[in-house]
Specification:
4-stranded mixed β-sheet; 39% strand; 145 residues
């Protein structure tokens, strides 16, 4: 069997500065590298967009990497936000310690949540929050039941 492991999650964003600030200053990711004008034939082929040109920021933190894209060309479109039950990617999750303290800190920083943390089964407490572009991030704390 082929061995695989996660490397990163990528999000196309409308406001790169706002999203970078959120992930860096609010969630504690660090910038690993950045290219303000990423374009070449190979990149365009891989993403399937002729003459693609993007500002790309690779961030690292919490055991994973997060890649933010803002496309200069072609320009992206704002799609309607999906519900959690709609098909396709619905959220990504970060395991945290002391979820309630983090929730209160993020709430006071203006982060939008669906609800306060909930114990969904014994030993599992979680909440869903939104990043500045409306993407859903699950914060989950595991404890002994």
């Amino acid at each position: 069997m082929m061995e695989m492991m996660w490397h990163h999650i990528a999000i196309a964003v409308e406001d790169l500065d706002n999203s970078r600030g959120f992930y860096q200053n609010i969630l504690g990711f660090e910038i690993e590298w950045e290219n303000e004008n990423y374009t070449n034939i190979q990149f365009a082929k891989v993403v399937g967009l002729h003459d693609a040109n993007a500002h790309v920021v690779m961030m690292k933190g919490h055991g994973t990497c997060l890649e933010l894209f803002h496309y200069h060309f072609p320009e992206g479109e704002r799609l309607p936000l999906k519900r959690q039950c709609d098909y396709g990617l619905t959220h990504f999750a970060l395991v945290v310690d002391d979820l309630m303290s983090l929730y209160n800190r993020l709430l006071s920083a203006g982060v939008q949540f669906n609800s306060p943390p909930q114990e969904t089964r014994p030993g599992v407490c979680l909440t869903y929050m939104k990043d500045p572009e409306g993407n859903i991030i699950e914060l989950v704390e595991y404890s002994e039941a």
